[in-house]
Amino acid sequence: MNSAANNINPYMNESTNRDLSMIPGDYGLPLIGHTFAFIDDNVAWVLKNYQQYGPVFKQALAFQRVVATVGPDFLRQVTLDQDKVFSSQAGWEGMVGEFFQGSLIVQDFEEHRMQRKLMQTAFKAESLHGYIDHMNRLVQSALLEWPKNEPMLFYPAVKSLLLDIAAKVFLGAQLEDEGPRINKAFVDFANGATSIVKKDWPGLGYHKGLKGRAILDQFIRQRIDEKRHGNGTDMFSHFCRETNEDGDYYSDQEITDHMLFLLFAAHDTTTSALTMAMHQLAGHQDWQAELRETLNAIDAETPTFDHLGSNIPELDYTFKETLRIYPPVPGVIRRTIRACEIGGYEIPAHTMVSTSISGVHYLEEYWSKPFHFDPMRFSETRQEHKQHKFLWAPFGGGGHKCIGLHFADMLFKCLMFNLIKHHRVQYVRDRQSAGKILYVPFTRPKDNLPLVISKA
Ligand code: HEM
Fold first, then answer.
1. What is the helix, strand, coil percentage profile of the chain, to 5?
2. I need a surface site. Which of 64, 183, 218, 370 has the fewest CB within 10 A?
3. Closest residue by Cα to residue 416 from 324, 321, 319
């Protein structure tokens, strides 16, 4: 079977349309366009344009000219893509292509559907059941080690814990002596993939990232055969044993490409979600106390599969509200493969189109006081998110909707349950809640979130 990476769709050979004269807005500064305003505060930037120009405007980001859209109807149009007009491959490839060739996000239509099948077993409920015990064990041992009653930096601590979870649950590997080398390769790889200057020059993050990628590629590839013939229950083993529609195993290249993207897609997103949740809980002690009371009323020391989803409402509202305020992925990007209409504008073929997730999460037409942390907006009595199917969309939608959303839900709730049930989490400094937030590559407080954890 051919590697997906070798499959060239004809529209990939076309150059991108850069004439957006029919769309309101401007192209910003020469070369850099609006990149700095966008990465400095993505939400403020999107809402400013929305107010000035309406829900469709042009912007120039990372050397690309893009038709930006803000609104739940656009999120539906672009992600569901009922007319098969939006290419994810042509949208994402310029940004992440060299790192994620052959991954799901750079595949379209039928090819994408076939490749996505490779991952399905690993994300079924039975498989997820198998992951939670590993997660609980790793979370509990991290909680024993994390300092108590003295300041700690939450962001690097949770990042390191999630790397351990990835090694165990994704790769099924005891890294032991190899741990530091593989962890470093992974961190370089993730930083390189999200670097703004995409040049393979020594000294640049992009260059280090590609070297990290090569190390991980080799690590994964060398283990495929053993995984294929073993009975492991980790994600990697599931991928290796999966067969395509002809009953053949997926190729080594396909498995490696998918594993690499999966590690990236899962790690920084969930690290960001957990960090921003702790930021909110430290700043909202009343809600934190209410959540703890709910967890203490549950007769279980660690969460089981049945405690996930919406089964502990206060925990679920915390998850949803954190991802509403700080969606780790601010929007999705596509390129049109033929002319289409968006919001009354004729959009030519081969035009970059983005649709904002963060902007939709703040629209005053739908959300009451959108800048306030208010988990109860998701409660049965209020259900603000139910006004439109694409109003709360941190995981995107349609064919490319995040395949790991239940996994992310499980990981988030597993750590929250274990941590908040028996501990109190506080800021180290007064006014810490007003500190600078970085949005790129993934949302986190600039100070890495110093916190004090104490027994509750
Ligand atoms: C809070 C955590 C996460 C958020 C907010 C998130 C968000 C997203 C979004 C918005 C997309 C769609 C991108 C697009 O349509 O262009 C996506 C795709 C994807 N995500 Fe996630 N994600 C998270 C966690 C995870 C986890 C834990 C995994 C794996 C275990 C994962 C694996 C993937 C994969 C493989 C895709 C590509 C799917 C496809 O193209 O068919 N993500 N994610």
1. 55, 10, 35
2. 218
3. 319
pLDDT greater than 80 at residue 7: no
Structure tokens at 342: 């968006």
**What is the per-residue pLDDT across 47-56, written as a single tens digit (0 to 9) for each?**
999 999 999 9
- 385: its two tokens: 């998110």
* Nearest by Cα to 115 from 17, 229, 257: 257
Q: Tell whether ligand 1 has an atom less than 6 A from the beta carbon of residue 275.
A: no
Distance CA 68, CA 355 (A): 6
On average, the pLDDT of the chain sits at 93
CA of 405 to the centre of ligand 1 (A): 7
Count of C-beta atoms within a 10 Å radius of residue 380: 8
The response to whether residue 115 sits with its C-beta less than 6 Å from ligand 1 reads no
State if residue 330 touches ligand 1 by the CB under 6 angstroms criterion: no
Which burial class, exposed, middle or buried, applies to 190 when counting CB atoms under 10 A from its CB (0-12, 13-18, 19+)? buried
Tokens of 439: 């949005």
- Verify cis geometry, omega within 30 degrees of 0, for the bond prior to 72: no
**Long-range contacts of range 345-350, CB-CB < 8 Å, 24 or more positions apart?**
345/22, 345/23, 345/56, 345/67, 346/22, 347/67, 348/17, 348/19, 349/11, 349/14, 349/17, 350/11, 350/14, 350/15, 350/16, 350/17, 350/90
The model's pLDDT over 19-57, given as tens digits with 9 standing for 90+, comes to: 999 999 999 998 888 988 888 999 999 999 999 999 999
Task: Determine if ligand 1 sits within 6 Å of the CB of residue 260.
Answer: no
Do 398 and 79 contact (CB within 8 A), yes or no? Answer: yes
């994300």: which residue's tokens? 123
Q: Is the CB of 88 under 6 A from ligand 1?
A: yes
> Is the pLDDT reported for residue 240 higher than 90?
yes
Cβ distance 240 to 259 under 8 Å?
no
Q: What is the pLDDT of residues 61-115, one digit of tens each?
A: 878 999 999 999 999 999 999 999 999 999 999 888 789 999 999 999 999 999 9
Q: Is the CB of 105 under 6 A from ligand 1?
A: yes
H or E element in which residue 353 lies:
strand 352-356
Any atom of ligand 1 within 6 Å of the Cβ of 269: yes
Q: Which of 272, 402, 413 to mutate to test the pocket of ligand 1 (most atoms within 8 A of CB)?
A: 402
| CA-proximal residue: ligand 1, atom 21 (nearest) | 402
Residue nearest to atom 36 of ligand 1 (CA): 402
Supply the pTM of this predicted model.
0.95
What domains sit in the chain, N to C, each tagged with a CATH number? 4-173+223-455 (1.10.630.10)
The two tokens of residue 15 are: 């150059």
